[in-house]
Amino acid sequence: MSSLQLAVVGGGPAGLRAAEVAASLGAKVTLFDAKPSVGRKFLVAGKGGMNLTHDEPPGSFATRYRSEGDPAEAPGVGTLSRWTSLLSDFGPTELREWAAELGVETFAASTGRVYPREMKSAPLLRRWVARMRASGVEFLMRHRLSSLEVGPAFSLGFDADGAPCRFNADAVILALGGASWPGTGSTGDWLELLRGLGVQVRPLQPANCGWEVEWPAEMQSLLEGKPLKNLAASAGGVSARGELLVTRYGLEGGILYALSHALREMSRPVLSVDFKPESSEVSLFGRLGSARRNYLEEGGVRWRLGETALRLLQYFRGGKPFASGEEAAHFVKNCPIPLRGPRPVEEAISTAGGVGFEQLDEALMVRLVPGVFVAGEMLDWEAPTGGYLMQGCFASGTRAGMGAFRYLASRRQ
Ligand SMILES: Cc1cc2nc3c(=O)[nH]c(=O)nc-3n(C[C@H](O)[C@H](O)[C@H](O)COP(=O)(O)OP(=O)(O)OC[C@H]3O[C@@H](n4cnc5c(N)ncnc54)[C@H](O)[C@@H]3O)c2cc1C
């Protein structure tokens, strides 16, 4: 096997995992990355505690993923079997065992989110890369992939710190990430390269991102940085529980991340927020007691709304008085917040769009270009925050690494 060369391009979690798997099976692996070092977004994730995966049974874990190519009438169905299969190669249990092998103990928080005990990603990355080097993976940094020629062998063209160079390989794994946080190396510059090979790629869009809200400067300065906890919200028939944060441009937070896809599908995105999810409209109305006017202001006290929630409700009501307590209670549980649009993809936590699964076989090999595999956020899938993104990268990296090894093995025979 050592005479056949595998090039892995992209040193995020997906590419690193793919390289690790292929090398452990016996492939000769060279890993390229445009940046001076690998795993820059992996390290950024570490700043938020590094939510590696989620403690959740495999059946419901797989339902967290969705792809644009899925049938609209049954969202998640195609995705479900695909992700059940990918996670059976390398799921949350395997990911935690893998971290433990590297000497990094993990724990599941009460939310189900799984973190390294130290809440950092740097020690994990350092040990991971050291182990890969020791197992023979060669790392070539500052190599930005600029072309890919298909022939008896693949010829990869790189911009190596301004100097063009070429590298030949018998198989290629592309794990170039999405287009968020381009400073970490993932710029989405691979779209044209793949389209040039005839591969259909869906445009990259922000997922798990903030949304802009039209409100005056005084609202911004008054409420910026203020959190809103324990909310429920819905958009396009999808519901979520969680938090929101008022930002300079609008709103950010877990609820919006969970509703990313539904909101992007709406021509005029509107978030319907329930500020009192634990109480019914009837009970809210009952607690208004003898109040006969200023229902919202009265409710602010009697419903314990909090100042930020009250101001937002007043703003989105637009000064129109409520005719009754019932109407005010209904509004508090169904406050429509029109959203101007998502923040730019560069600011998002992750990216939707990319290479559709219909372009790939089960091993994540591009059907049109046998020998080229794709893994990680380059693939067209999205999932909410909570460790599902990292897990998706590890699982698809595992599948691509195994697939590339088998492809090389079949060529040797
Ligand atoms: C702020 C932030 C916090 C996050 N926190 C979490 C979290 O806690 N949990 C979680 O599950 N997910 C988290 N994520 C998401 C997660 O980090 C990504 O989903 C994941 O890193 C994607 O992995 P990847 O390997 O597909 O791509 P990336 O990690 O983006 O890696 C792609 C690599 O390819 C290289 N590259 C790109 N183009 C080229 C080219 N042309 N030539 C050569 N190399 C190239 C890049 O330099 C980069 O190293 C977070 C993301 C952000 C932005």
Write a structural description.
- By secondary structure, this protein is of the alpha+beta class.
- It folds into two domains: 5-207 and 346-412, 3-Layer(bba) Sandwich (FAD/NAD(P)-binding domain); 211-342, no CATH class.
- It is built from 15 helices and 20 strands.
- The chain has helices at 13-25, 40-47, 58-61, 77-89, 92-101, 122-134, 191-196, 217-223, 254-258, 260-265, 281-287, 295-302, 307-317, 325-333, 388-412, and strands at 5-9, 28-32, 53-54, 106-108, 113-116, 138-140, 143-149, 154-160, 163-169, 171-174, 201-207, 211-212, 227-235, 238-246, 250-252, 270-274, 335-338, 341-342, 350-355, 372-374.
- β4 (106-108) and β5 form a beta hairpin.
- α4 packs across α15 (388-412) and α11 packs across α14 (325-333).
- It is elongated and about 85 Å long.
- The mean pLDDT is 94.
- Flavin-adenine dinucleotide (FAD) binds at residues 9-15, 32-35, 38, 40-42, 44-45, 48, 50-51, 144-145, 175-177, 180-181, 184-187, 189-190, 349-350, 376-377, 387, 389-390, 393.
Secondary-structure topology with pairs:
Layout (H helix, E strand, L loop, with lengths): L4 E5 L3 H13 L2 E5 L7 H8 L5 E2 L3 H4 L15 H13 L2 H10 L4 E3 L4 E4 L5 H13 L3 E3 L2 E7 L4 E7 L2 E7 L1 E4 L16 H6 L4 E7 L3 E2 L4 H7 L3 E9 L2 E9 L3 E3 L1 H5 L1 H6 L4 E5 L6 H7 L7 H8 L4 H11 L7 H9 L1 E4 L2 E2 L7 E6 L16 E3 L13 H25 L1
Parallel strand pairs: 1-2, 1-10, 2-6, 10-20
Antiparallel strand pairs: 3-5, 4-5, 7-8, 8-9, 11-19, 12-15, 12-18, 13-14, 13-16, 14-15, 16-17
Helix pairs in contact: 1-15, 4-15, 11-14
The protein binds flavin-adenine dinucleotide.
